Amino acid sequence: MSRKDYEEICAELDNTRQKDHPHAYDALSQEERETIEYWIGRAIQPAQKADERHSSYGLKYEYTRETKVYVSHAQFKGAMLVAGYLPTEKSEQNWHFKIKPTYDEKSFSQNVASQNKSTRLPAYRSTPQGEQDLQLQALVQKVLASHRDDDSYAVMI
Questions:
Q1: Residue 31 belongs to what H/E stretch?
Q2: Which of 49, 48, 55 has the alpha carbon at shortest distance from 73?
Q3: pLDDT tens digits for 88-123?
Q4: Is 114 in contact with 34 (CB distance < 8 Å)?
Q5: 71: confidence class by pLDDT, cuts 50, 70, 90
Q6: What's 28's DSSP letter?
């Protein structure tokens, strides 16, 4: 998907009563865009079927949970469009996409998968359980540094 496709979908939604309009993505800083685009690229991969268990709102929550960087639901929807993921039904407020987690629980041993389930770890994350993503951490630090003097910015801790 290109920026042009993103603009076309946003223009289609302009004449609707769409809540959480993805055009809000444009309000993100360059650092925030780089961070969310990196996370989507690492945590999510295309699939044949839509993931009906994880909506755009749930994915936004998993992004915030891992990075501690807040984005709105609308901004996350825009980031998914820019990343090339089209909603299965764009008239809905909470979008679903033809996606699957990069680190699928089924690929882990039974013990690790069971442990992840009991500790309620997110299905979508940038690295396998127990590993750290140093590049993601560096991007998050850039976001935090760019907002140090901004009283209106909140970091989820």
A1: helix 30-43
A2: 55
A3: 998 899 999 999 999 865 555 555 555 555 555 568
A4: no
A5: very high
A6: S
pTM score, whole prediction = 0.83
Which DSSP string corresponds to 39-100? Answer: HHHHHEEE-SS--TT--HHHHHHHHHHHH-B---HHHHHHHHHHTTPPBS-TTSSS--BSEE
Question: 27, 79 in Cβ contact below 8 A?
Answer: no
* Of 101, 92, 100, 114, nearest in space to 50 by CA: 100
Task: Kindly give, in sequence order, each residue whose CB lies less than 8 Å from that of residue 38, ignoring residues fewer than 6 positions away.
Answer: 126, 135, 136, 139
Domain residue limits, the chain: 3-146
Please say whether the beta carbons of 103 and 21 come within 8 A.
Answer: no
How many CB atoms sit inside 10 A of residue 134's CB? 9
Q: Position 1: which residue type?
A: M
Residue type, 96: H
Instruction: Give CA–CA dist 56/106, Å, rounded.
Output: 22
In contact, 80 and 24? CB cutoff 8 Å:
no
Q: Is 101 helix (H, G, I), strand (E, B) or coil?
A: strand
